[in-house]
Amino acid sequence: MSRRLDRDTRELFRRFGIEPNVRSDGWLDLQLRCLVRLLREIRAEAGSRTGIPWSRQWRAWRLGFRSRHAALYQFDDGNAAGYVPCYEYAWRCYTMNGFWNPIVGNKLVVSQVLAAHGIPHPRVLGIVSHGRPLPPGPGDPAAVASLHEWTADCRPVVFRPHWSGDGQGVFFVRRSRDAWFINGRDAIEHDVADLIGGIDRYIATAFVDQAAYARAIHPASTNTLRVLTLFDEEGPFVASIVHRFGTSRSFPVDNFHQGRGGVCAAVDSGSQTLGKAVSLDQHNCREWHSVHPETGSQIEGVSIPGLQKALEGVLAAARCFPEATCVGWDLLITDGGFSILEANAPPGIVVSQAHAPLLADPRTALFFARHGIRGPAKAVAS
User: Fold this and answer.
1) Beta partners for 331?
2) In whole angstroms, what is the distance from residue 230 CA to residue 233 CA?
3) How many angstroms separate the Cα of 176 from the Cα of each of 124, 133, 173, 187, 252?
4) Domain 99-117+211-370: which CATH class?
5) Where on the phi/psi map is residue 170: left (φ > 0), alpha (ψ -120 to 50), or beta?
6) CA neighbor of 44 nearest in space, from 62, 63, 69
7) Using an 8 Å Cβ cutoff, are 326 and 332 in contact?
8) Would you list the domain boundaries of the chain?
9) Is 154 helix (H, G, I), strand (E, B) or coil?
10) Tens digits of per-residue pLDDT, 158-167?
11) Confidence band for 191, pLDDT divided at 50, 70 and 90
């Protein structure tokens, strides 16, 4: 959001013949977007079937939290004051990045910026506009993008909306000779053509193979780290790291947010290892997992190779968007390094608080306080 000129700066503009910017700073637009986000949170809560006793739901609402999140955060432990409240965050989150939200949230734009700075990310094969496959850039004027070209190497192609979150709209297409597959299910070419022909504003990227440790835990999904970066006067810093793993409920993605079915593990950046994973069952009760609940593969104590280098890459990416002060990065560790799959702005923070309250860190707490967000005045009594 633009800043109004002070008297001295206005005088300098006048002296040197600089035309002042008299356009609106967009305050009302941003507040309306925040209001929409808040109303969506309220609507989601009204339509949820939590199975949580009314007394606990009321205590959560009174302090500004959705009841599902209260179950995850375990307020009975007396630690509610350290958590960023759901409704307060929804009301203010869009103003943190302002009009950089649609820039950072656009997967095509982010991929082009990362490519320009040499930061690893999935190779963009093309885009889909009004059902038409198109090249991602100028390239060869004679080149014609097509689904057959994108799938020629028999590897999956990932299709994602330019602007989306929570794994919504994501699907995978793979061709093996004359056989086609959508999300691993048998399909015919006509099915794929109809699917592509019915979508708009999509980006098609090459599939990135995850590292061996992640494949061992849950091979059916791409299992990503969610890294929350904040930007203050000293520059960008990592406020939270968690590792998501898919399940049969979340397939084909690993989403944990909104009860999608995945599991979320804590990450110790010092030792570069995974802690226990958490999930919410169908009754919104928190469950802990030292091993993956479906594959039985070990989670707790597993090392994440190259984590420190990957986090340095995320901070480099954050510096590419200095006015986007709050971003959630989806990071994939590979056998040879890392790849930044996408950025989320404004990010959902439920997964970031699944294991620890964000406001427990003084630097993070100061960042949110400067944006008008503080934890509840007092914790919920059990």
Assistant:
1) 225, 340
2) 10
3) 21, 20, 10, 11, 19
4) alpha beta
5) beta
6) 69
7) no
8) 27-97, 99-117+211-370, 124-206
9) coil
10) 999 988 766 7
11) very high
